[in-house]
Amino acid sequence: MVDLGGSKVIEKTVDVAVIGGGPAGLAAAVSAKKSGAKDVVILERNSWLGGILPQCIHDGFGVEETGVSMTGPEYAEKYVEEVERLGIQVLKETMVLSFDKKRKITAVNKKGMHKIDAKTIVLAMGCREKTRWNVMIPGDRPSGIYTAGVAQAFINLYNIMPGKNVLILGSGNVGLIMARRLKLEGANVLGVVEILPYPSGLPRNVVQCLDDYDIPLFLSHTVTSIEGKGRLKQVTVAQVDEKMVPISETEKRIECDTLLLSVGLNPENELTKGAGIKIDDLTDGPIVNQDLETTMPGLFACGNCLQVYDAVDLLSIDAKRAGKRATEYISSQKVEKDIWKKAKQPIAQIVAGSGVRYVVPQRISKCGEVQLTLRAKKPTGASKLYVNSQDKTIFEKKLRWANPANMIRVNVPIEKATSMQTLEVTLDGC
Q1: In terms of pTM, does the model score above 0.70?
Q2: Beta-carbon contacts of residue 155 (< 8 Å; ≥ 6 apart)
């Protein structure tokens, strides 16, 4: 510890530093420790661990991963207990200010400035909800406008009802879940308005949260204006054309005191961008290889700061892989540096082709089985996924259906690849 004029600078060296203590960060830290990392630290800016999970009181968590259905708090506690059992250090209320290519982290909390020299770093900062200003809704600026996640926290954590007559813009999963939650608490849920011609949330959530509670879903519609002095009084809703431009003659005013926004998520990557790591324009997350390693050696990414997941279980499974690979990276440094550097050079890039919105990873650095995660551009029935190298198909798989709300996961064997070969992933029928 260094004392600079009364300001404490706490210096520490660790094997693995995990930035973020949400579900991805917890899973990555546990995996790193179990894989042999001696000193693992979690840096979390909030005063609690688990991210958004403590406010998700509905069940369904953990089924894919453990076979047991849990609530969000139960699922988070499972990992928190494991973190404590393994002796993983946790620094809560700690804000990471920066890190560099030498994996030196600068963070601050009430104890002072922390200078952490990490052998490897796992990025798990999560994501944040888009607001009214991200989607540019004109009109007045009254109270009564919340993101769906904020409304969820009000009800489930603080026992506060955000409003009585509620309209929801966007059919994202949290918005759908909140439609049901508000209905159960006695609110008048007027409907869910979605600009796309199909729901953006999981099909099961549409059925269980809207259909089962007779909550209407208005597809190809959007909010065009907000009115209210002090408190929200009404919003204007209009149908949109195929270019998502509002059709003026279809405008309708709806009286309500609350508008919830479920219009998408932004990965938290200000730190990532500041460090000079390359970002994918489609996911807004870092470009990674098959080991979830970014373009900066020794830095790995997982969870919603890499790509926005639709299921926490799958997020945790991938985060475990990031934690394990980060630990293996430490061991690899014992190999002669020039040999390791040569082995890490990209031998192929993976791009999204016809029918595919994005694909992760975006590059591979070694042959073998590579797990791809991707999303379709639009809903379709039976289709086929192809991985093409130039004019040759190296992998194909039949799909019963494809939906942008459901992440597609496939394992593709890459037997041969040459320097900077391009592999294109396509979906027919999309």
Answers
A1: yes
A2: 161, 162, 181, 182, 185
